[in-house]
Amino acid sequence: MKSVEIAVLEGDGIGPDIVQATMRVLEKACAKQGVRTDFSMLPSGLSALESHGSTLPQETLDKLPDYSGWILGPVTHHTYPINDKRFINPSGYLRKNYELFANIRPSRAFPGVKTKFPEVDLVVVRENTEGMYADRNVLDGNGEFRPTEDTVVSVRVVTRKASLRVARQAFELARSRRGKVTAVHKANVLRRGCGLFLECCKEVAKEYPDIELNDFHVDAFAMMLVMYPERFDVIVTTNLFGDVLSDEAAGLVGGLGLAPGLNAGIEHAMGQATHGSAPDIAELHIANPVAEILSGKLLLDWLAAHLSMPELFEAAKDVERGVAETLKNGKGLTPDLGGTAHTDEMTDVILSEMG
Ligand code: NAD
Q: 275: Cβ below 6 Å to ligand 1?
């Protein structure tokens, strides 16, 4: 029997619940295609701090490179102290250090889920390794400085290399979709940083004459996104803008509980929901598992291409079908979608919809 090996980091808060749900769904979808899933649970987050003395222990870092595909649950990193080396944000660390340079965040309206925009089907491709993120933009230490009590300086990094590779990822994706890329920037004010990013998008566009490129300033785009979201196909942008706009896009089609993400590199990819660890509902076991499950689906698609295993494409389709049918029928939904089900009950329904 063929097998696929996936490393799993559960994270904090609702992480363990939604990651377990994802493993159950992926296991079934792959088994139906004759593929065994071997999940390796690696310590991470606040539970790893207790057991191994770090939120991202060396044991986990040693093992991760052995796997092409990883699943990460959300982490409660706003509580991680800045100057304590035991507290590493696994999300930022893994994205930067393993060059998971493209954060691919689809938003699509599912029949059955209340939305004013039933036609939305877009993907935000967010640069993931630099930009305005303090944990990603310097070699050592942190990219935010506090020279005086009342002043903070935050460094933003934009490089040609990172901009070109994320732009290429967006154009490749557009080729398998509706053939349109929108670059979002603020090059009218951030002339150098956003200017370089836009220059790179235009340079890559020359390699893809079949793909249409347009661009917007981020402020105007934020308005366009809530007025005419169905006009957009693939949106490519820098780290912070992508983080904000992808949550905005998620809000148009049912909220964060439905918003998946893939952190894609060349050698590795990591499925990870867009949302955080939802501390407000963490103890209640009512988190919507769909965002993490669909992140697992994106990982299967990536692994199918990376490992040349077409069965995984079929498994990925099956996962999406199970989720879509569940949402359409409206039974067994979690409270964020208007139901009363717990995470594992909604997962049971998704599994049964997969047949
Ligand atoms: P959040 O995404 O955790 O929660 C925002 C709101 O959405 C909350 O009301 C929450 O209950 C709800 N929500 C989120 N996911 C849900 C789900 N699957 N089902 C149902 N409801 C869901 O954002 P926050 O409250 O700003 O952040 C909480 C923690 O998560 C912070 O420590 C933050 O730093 C961290 N965070 C981590 C990641 C990550 O690991 N990738 C991403 C964003 C935030």
A: yes
Backbone angles phi, psi at 224, to 5 degrees: -60, -35
Separation of CA 10 and ligand 1 centre (Å) = 14
Block mean pLDDT (10 aa), the chain, length 355:
96 98 98 98 97 98 98 96 92 95 97 94 97 89 92 96 98 98 98 98 98 98 98 98 97 95 98 96 97 98 98 98 97 96 98 94
The DSSP secondary-structure symbol of 87 reads: -
Residue 80 Cα distances to 50, 53, 56, angstroms:
13, 13, 12
3-state class (DSSP) for residue 216: strand
Distance 95 CA to ligand 1 centre (A): 18
Give the tokens for residue 86.
Answer: 């035991």
* Rg (alpha carbons) of the chain, rounded to whole number: 20
pLDDT for position 46: 97
Res 82: pLDDT: 84
pLDDT of residue 295: 98
- Token pair listed for 46: 């606040």
* Three-state DSSP state, 11: coil
Residue owning the nearest CA to atom 40 of ligand 1: 74
CA 124, distance to chain mean position in Å, is 10
Ligand 1, atom 34, residue with closest C-alpha:
78
Written as six digits, the tokens of 79 are: 């509580």
Q: Is 257 in the pocket of ligand 1 (CB under 6 A)?
A: yes
Q: Is 237 in the pocket of ligand 1 (CB under 6 A)?
A: no
Report the catalytic residues.
133, 186, 219, 243, 247
Residue 279, ligand 1, Cβ within 6 A? yes
